[in-house]
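tokens incoming
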């Protein structure tokens, strides 16, 4: 445990406050001693843990200048202020290309996620990896609610009112592939409180019982 960061994946699902959240499934996929770009880094909890436990050097991209300052205080080398929905952007002051580019629950908030993925691949090393985490809209609770005629946006979760895109495990993996990336791993998972009790069912029917999923990919042509 690092201060207020819950590294046991027991974060509640009943709050829209992500200031103390941390996706340990993303963390586990990052190799030690990596140069990382954390896209949508927010307050920097992931980067702090990567720096302290895996000796990574971490840069971030964030639209909110105020929270980016918190990420810098937590050890991020640079935080680039970019609105990925509007800006045609260049990242300055990067020390070479990155070993890992992380999209931890951010692509679903973008107008053109494939375009952003494609744009940022020029900053990935030929042998680098991309780690994407997305919510699974085909989770059993969403299916049951839809059968009852309910599709209500919320302040948090899969139907977060700031989500612009919705993905199943299959369509999310296809979205990553369409950016010219080669899939390495697709991992459905549950990290929140009571949902972790579904992990034994998740092994049988992952597209039904996983609340989120990871996609790990690499440059298709290694360029």
């Amino acid at each position: 445990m690092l201060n207020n960061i819950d590294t046991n994946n027991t974060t509640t699902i009943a709050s829209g406050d992500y200031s103390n959240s941390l996706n340990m499934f993303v963390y586990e996929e990052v190799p030690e001693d990596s140069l990382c770009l954390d896209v949508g880094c927010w307050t920097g909890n992931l980067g702090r843990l990567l720096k302290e436990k895996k000796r990574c050097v971490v840069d971030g991209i964030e639209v909110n200048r105020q929270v980016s300052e918190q990420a810098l205080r937590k050890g991020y080398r640079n935080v680039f202020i970019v609105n990925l929905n509007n800006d045609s952007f260049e990242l300055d002051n990067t020390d070479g290309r990155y070993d890992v580019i992380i999209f931890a629950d951010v692509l679903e908030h973008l107008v053109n996620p494939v375009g952003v993925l494609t744009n940022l691949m020029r900053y990935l090393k030929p042998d680098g990896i991309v780690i994407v985490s997305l919510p699974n809209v085909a989770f059993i609770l969403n299916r049951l609610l839809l059968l009852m005629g309910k599709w209500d946006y919320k302040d948090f979760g899969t139907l977060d009112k700031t989500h612009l895109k919705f993905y199943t495990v299959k369509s999310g993996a296809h979205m990553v592939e369409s950016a010219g990336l080669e899939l390495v791993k697709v991992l459905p998972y549950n990290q929140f409180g009571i949902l972790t009790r579904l992990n034994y069912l998740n092994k049988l029917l992952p597209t039904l019982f996983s609340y989120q999923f990871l996609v790990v990919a690499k440059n298709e042509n290694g360029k």
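note: The longest strand covers residues 124-135.
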